[in-house]
Amino acid sequence: xxxxxxxxxxxxxxxxxxxxxxxxxxxxxxxxxxxxxxxxxxxxxxxxxxxxxxxxxxxxxxxxxxxxxxxxxxxxxxxxxxxxxxxxxxxxxxxxxxxxxxxxxxxxxxxxxxxxxxxxxxxxxxxxxxxxxxxxxxxxxxxxxxxxxxxxxxxxxxxxxxxxxxxxxxxxxxxxxxxxxxxxxxxxxxxxxxxxxxxxxxxxxxxxxxxxxxxxxxxxxxxxxxxxxxxxxxxxxxxx
Length: 240
Prior knowledge:
Distance between the termini: 27 Å
CATH superfamily of the largest domain: YebC, transcriptional regulation domain
CATH topology of the largest domain: Alpha-Beta Plaits
Number of helices: 7
Order of helices and strands: HHHEEHEEHEEHEEHEE
Number of strands: 10
Largest sheet: 4 strands, antiparallel
Radius of gyration: 19 Å
Shape: globular
CATH architecture of the largest domain: 2-Layer Sandwich
Structural class: alpha+beta
Oligomer: single chain
């Protein structure tokens, strides 16, 4: 009879996953700190730090990333890059990366897309299909919470609230993100996710082999050390 993975192996896998998340968050904080080390006056840094806190990143780790980004600990040679392309089924994809080696990163991204039946596009080829917006996702399992979130979000300046599958997604302009988030938290609602994202204008249905290939592509890209965020316009249901 076969034996499942040992406790040690599971712990090692979890440590590796946590390490990868921390690496991406550290890069995000470092880049954000370039325009100011004070989160009170740097909204991008504040968002990055909130994400790191949600991931239980130690405070000293965040502080080192801020010092590096602000130049206090020497020069930082990371670059921000955005790649645009198409995945399986013609799905539009935006890939945000932070890298100290753009040649390596573009080669890795191009290989991932090509291997999954997609291709790397030129700048502007798909970005017009997305808008930069604030997005906050809440669990609405509690009775009445859906209506209360809707009321509070609209009152705080949100543009839309989409409720489905026991969750409410609050959509707002990027410059209203902090205001809307603060109002909802003050009302007692803690978001499952809260970030400024590139949200597609429309979602495209995808199924069968194209869906499986797209999911595999997203997983592949997510495993690349230099890739920070992946956005697409496919209508994919979450998998537990």
